[in-house]
Specification:
Structural class: mainly alpha
Low-confidence stretches: 19-32, 229-242
Mean pLDDT: 79
Radius of gyration: 19 Å
Helix content: over 70%
Order of helices and strands: HHHHHHHHHEE
């Protein structure tokens, strides 16, 4: 599983930087994206509302999704859990970043380093919030048990760390290239991670919903901080940095 995941991640990195190399650096979508705020009111309200709704039905959803006898679900969960596991994700992205730097490939270095920063920021944020909220995992059969500032991270549930990392990774890759099918592929893999965490009874639905939003926000922040758009109308240059 570890070898297959590493191959998948490296394949995704190479695919992203390959497609990126074929596309012009400046396009209307890139400029429009740079002008949009990282935190968008409608999206924030949607995530909070969906998280709140999930809170209300967490127990019922858990009873429906968690099925240890489901063979297909078990296989899907194995893949999903690995895709959001920092033990696999961080080293793979680090190696890719170092390799890109070593061989002088700015594209490989840029794609992998931004993805690494995005997932590290997302993962760190998840740990902090887990500690503050201190929500108990589904094994307690009570979706509303909280122990704020609980330092025992393995017993904390909100938000899902795996989901945060997987959606940060998906968002980072998706922002490197444009295309609906590419976005669908990356976010489908991230969604598989969210499903895996619920299927394995490690997280409530509200944990993964909020985690997805948090991961997306983390990647947006990293990419916005590093984005540089260069426009040269008749020799004049304009650089936008965020």
């Amino acid at each position: 599983m570890r070898v297959r995941l590493t191959i998948l991640l490296l394949g995704s990195l190479l695919a992203v930087q390959s497609v990126q190399a074929q596309q012009p650096k400046i396009d209307s979508a890139t400029i429009a994206r740079a002008n949009k705020p990282i935190l968008r009111t409608g999206e924030v309200l949607a995530v909070l509302a969906t998280t709140g709704l999930a809170f209300a039905f967490d127990q019922q959803l858990r009873n429906t999704i968690h099925d240890p006898t489901d063979r297909f679900g078990r296989t899907a969960s194995d893949i999903g859990n690995a895709l959001g596991n920092g033990v696999y994700v961080y080293p793979t992205l680090l190696v890719a970043s170092v390799a890109g730097k070593a061989v002088g490939s700015q594209k490989l270095y840029g794609v992998s380093s931004r993805a690494l920063k995005s997932t590290l920021l997302a993962g760190a944020g998840a740990i902090v919030l887990k500690t503050i909220v201190g929500r108990e995992r589904p094994g307690t059969d009570n979706a509303f048990k909280f122990h704020p500032f609980n330092v025992k991270d393995k017993t904390n549930s909100f938000p899902s760390g795996h989901t945060v990392v997987s959606f940060a990774l998906a968002t980072s890759f998706a922002r490197e290239i444009k295309g609906t099918w590419d976005d669908l592929f990356f976010y489908s893999l991230a969604t598989l991670t969210a499903y895996a965490r619920m299927h394995d009874d490690r997280h409530w639905m509200s944990d993964v919903v909020f985690g997805a939003g948090m991961g997306i926000l983390s990647a947006r922040f990293v990419h916005r901080r590093e984005s540089k758009i260069l426009i040269k109308p008749k020799g004049l240059g304009l650089s936008l940095e965020f």
